[in-house]
Amino acid sequence: MDLTFLGATGTVTGSKYLVASGGRHLLVDCGLFQGYKQLRLRNWEPLPAAAARLDAIVLTHAHIDHSGYLPRLWKQGFRGPVYCTAPTRDLCRIMLPDSGGLQEEEAEYANRHRFSKHTPALPLYTREDAEHSLRLFETVPWHQDWEPVRGLHARLGRAGHMPGAAHLRLADGHTSVLFSGDLGRPDDRVLRAPEPPPAADYVVTESTYGDRLHLEVDVLEQLAQVINRTSARGGTVVIPAFAVGRAQTLLHCIDLLKKQGRIHHLPVYLNSPMAADALGVFSRHSQELRLSSTECRAMEEAAHIVRTVDESRELNARRGPMVIIAGSGMATGGRVVHHLKAFGPDRRNTILLVGFQAGGTRGAKLRDGADSVRIHGEDIPIRAEVAVLDALSGHADASQLEAWLRQMAHAPRRAFVTHGEPDAADALRQRLERRLGWAVTVPEQGQRVVLA
């Protein structure tokens, strides 16, 4: 079995792992690169393995950094099956067309305002491309062996990161490898804890928070403080949020705060049709959640849903106090960037960051104290308060990653640390070497290893 790292090396985006076994080629995850321009440019490059030569794809979950390259691959000629869990399929039905639509909108906006260096600016793929790629999906039950390609046996276990998120074990009869996917937290407010990992000869583990620990804080109290002090200024809280996962957790927390009387009953807007549609997927797959059916309904009713572009524009003309939750989570695109333009220059407002911010994204620049961010070709001053609430992250921290891996029946021959910024990946490497005594490698982009 050969393993080639085609993404998520030195970054938390673009997850792609090419597994070759018995003359067959399987791609584990098919994600978009995000953040720094040099990473985003990779999305325009063909895979080293021609799309038509790939036999199948397995997705660990639906987030765009794990699934968002699939429509581009379809354009390049891939027609094989895409295997995943039922919740992942249902979420991709929402997220992939939305991704294509956003890219079309951004290309059209760039052409209309003439700020692109390319004439004309083109989308990486379209909504129609995404719809075509969805025809390739085939769902697989939890904990059931199947062969995504001949001679390679696979099994999915729950990873807890979002509905349908899985860790994946592959075995060819001689060698086995475990992919963690994105690992959730054992104490997540909405999602069930990750299931223990099966034994494997090799492990590929994420390291998003490999260099830090989540603070033991009262998340509800921190969120209440941000909302209340902004409300007291007459301001608006703008929250860039991942449409699947963080948006739903935020709605659940805001609903609890209102019911407990810890915040005023101010207007809350969910300005993400994708996040609104994902609420239905959460309810349909409630076995993935810690919430009761009553709590699921309350989460769905916790905000006014903003569907149209005109309604989104109208929000920018309103003044607080109010809360706006909008995609995307790292402020790389989508409707939230228009809200940053409208509300970022006003000191009364707050921009609240509630998830991981990859290097090179607007979210990372805001987190690091930038006094302006570039949006649609112009520098927008940021005078609003910028607050960070890491405790709502959906990723396991360094200690939780170690604890999860420690449950393996025996140490692997080698672990590969991916899906992390360089400092985080190397910190987890050192942690696993020193505390578990494992042999660990941080691979480079394009690196190929033989799993013997």
Automatic annotation (TrEMBL):
SMART domains: Beta-Casp (SM01027), Lactamase_B (SM00849). Residues 247-366 form the Beta-Casp domain. Keywords: Hydrolase. Gene3D superfamilies: 3.40.50.10890, Ribonuclease Z/Hydroxyacylglutathione hydrolase-like (3.60.15.10). InterPro entries: Beta_Casp, MBL, Metallo-B-lactamas, RibonucZ/Hydroxyglut_hydro, RMMBL. The keyword Hydrolase applies. GO terms for molecular function: hydrolase activity; RNA endonuclease activity. Residues 13-223 form the Metallo-beta-lactamase domain. Signal peptide: none annotated. The keyword Hydrolase applies. PANTHER family: CLEAVAGE AND POLYADENYLATION SPECIFICITY FACTOR FAMILY MEMBER, INTEGRATOR COMPLEX SUBUNIT 11. This is MBL fold metallo-hydrolase.
